Amino acid sequence: MASMRQIRSRIRVAKNIEQITKAMKMVAAARLRRAQDTVISARPYSQKLREVMGRLASSSAGSSGQPLLKPLTAAPKRIGLVLVSGDRGLCGSFNSSAIRLGMEAVRGFAPADVKVIAVGRRGAAFLRRRGYTIVGEHSIAGAAASFTDSQAIAESATQLFVDGSVDVVQLVYTQFVSSMTQRPQSIQLIPVAPPEVSATAPVERNEVIFEPDAEEILDDLVPKYVETLIFQAVLESSASFFGAQMTSMSAATDNAGKMISTLTLSLNRARQAAITREIAEIVGGADALKG
Question: Is 260 domain-assigned?
Answer without folding.
Answer: no
